[in-house]
Amino acid sequence: MTVIAHPSLEERKAHGKAAREHARPASHEGWAPAADRPDPIALLEEQNATREPDLVPVRHGRMMVSPFTFYRGGAKIMAADLAPTPVSGLHTQLCGDAHLSNFGVFASPERTLLFDLNDFDETLPGPFEWDVKRMAASFTIAARDNGFTAEQARAGTSRSVRSYREKMAEFAQMSTLDIYYARLSEADIMNAITVEKRALKGTDQAIPKAAGKIAQRTADKARTRDSLQALAKLAELVDGRYRIVSQPPTIVPVRELAPSLGYSAGDVERILHEQFRSYRATLQDDRRHLLERFELVDVARKVVGVGSVGTRAFIALLQGRDEQDPLFLQVKEASRSVLEDHLPKSRYHQPGERVVQGQRMMQAASDIFLGWTKGVDDGRFLYWRQLRDMKGSIAIESLVPSGLEFYADVCGYTLARAHARSGDPIAIASYLGKKDRFDEAITDFSARYADQNERDYDTFCAAIRSGRLEAVEGL
C-alpha cells in the first residue's frame, strides 16, 4: 500500500531550505563539460539506429540549419551533460525538452486558446533544474541565432529564469486547487501586454505594441488551424471520398508504404482498424463514445519536427457525419525518454502512456483525444492526439530583443506552473529564495552551454562533410 505523506507548511519550507545543502543556487554557474563527456555524434547515431533509415538524413538536414535547430534535436546530448550537474533533490514532472519552441498555443476543450508546453516526448519525473536549464539555454542560443548582442541574449535568458523564480513564489502562496486551475489564456497574455504598455512612456510603448501584434497574429493564425484546414491542405477527393495526398518523403500514404513492408491491402486495413480499436480503449468512456462516431478513412506517414524526425509518425484522417466533417489525428512513436539514461525508468511500462500521463500532469488542459497503443512491431509504441486543434507557435526568428524578453517571461511562468502542479511549489520557492542568485547562476550556465552547443554543431557539420553522417537539406 502506498502511503501518502502530508508534511506541514513549515516542514515543506524547511525541506526547500535544506535542499540548499545539496546544491546552493550559486552552484549552477561555472559549468564545464565533463572530462569523460560522451561523443555527441555517437549519441545521435545511437538514436538513429532505431529510426526510419530513409528519414535519418532528413533529420540531420533539419538539425544542420543552425546551432538552434541542432539544439532542438540534441535533447539526448544535453541530458548526458545535465546528469553530472548539481541538483537540489527537489523533483517535479519534467517536460524533458523544454526549449522555447516547445511552448505554444492550442485550444482547450472549452475552445479557449491557452499558452502552454506542447511537447512531452521526453517527459519523466526528475530534478526541476534540468527543465529550467534546457529552457534558459534555448533563449541564449536563439538570441545568438537572431544576431542579438551578448547583453541582449543575457537579458532574455535572465528574464526567463527570474520569471520562473518569481512565479514559483506566487504559486507557493496559492491554494492547491488554485494551482491546478491556473492557466494562461489568450486574454491573459493580451492583458499583460496592455499593462506593460501602460507602464512605459513615449517611444518605449512601441515595444509592447509590437509584441501585441505578434501575439494577435499568432492567435488569429491558430484559430484557422483545424481539421477542415488540414483537409484542404493534406487531402484530395477521389471517387467521392477524401484520401491523404502523397507528398514524399514528408507525407507518404500507407497505401504506398505497404508493398515495401510486405503487407497486402487487406493486411493494412486489418492492422489499421486493430490499432484504432486499441487506441480507443485507452480513452475515457465519453471520449471513446465521441470518437466512435468517426470512421477511419486514411493514414499516412508524416515527418514532423526536428528531434522527432525518423521516429514513426503518422496522420490519420477520420470522417464524421459526411466528408465535410473531418478529424485529423496525429500518431507518434514513443520510445524511452532520453532522461531514462540517467534517471529511474518510467513507472509506465508503455512509453506511449508515459507521454500521455506526463502531458496531463503538466498541462493546464490537454487534448481530449490523447491515448496510446502498442505498435505492430515488437518494441514499438505509439501515442495519439489531434493533429491540429488551433495549435500555433511564435516564429522565434522574427522576434526582436524586447519581444524575446516578453516571451521569456511567459515561458518562465508556464514552466513554473507546470512544475507547481506536479512538484512542491513551497519547497522549490524556498530553495530558490527571493534574491536573484539562482537567476544569475542559470544565466551563466546558459552562456557556457551555448558555447558548447556551437562547438557540437561545428562537430556535427564536420561529420556530415566527412561522410560519417548523411544529410538531406531543404525538407
List keywords for this structure.
single chain, 475 residues, alpha+beta, six-stranded antiparallel β-sheet, three-stranded antiparallel β-sheet
Your description of this structure?
The protein is α+β, with helices and mostly antiparallel strands and 475 residues long. It folds into two domains: 9-222 and 396-466, no CATH class; 227-386, no CATH class. 49% of the residues lie in helices and 13% in strands. It contains 18 helices and 13 strands. The protein has helices spanning 9-18, 40-48, 56-63, 67-72, 75-82, 128-145, 150-172, 176-181, 186-199, 206-224, 227-234, 254-261, 265-280, 285-291, 351-362, 401-422, 425-432, 437-466, and strands spanning 91-94, 103-107, 113-117, 124-127, 184-185, 235-238, 241-244, 251-253, 295-302, 313-319, 326-333, 371-374, 381-386. A six-stranded antiparallel sheet has the order 8-9-10-11-13-12, sandwiched between helices. Helix 6 (128-145) runs antiparallel to helix 16 (401-422). The protein is globular, with a radius of gyration of 23 Å. It starts with 8 loop residues before the first helix and ends in a 9-residue tail after the last helix.
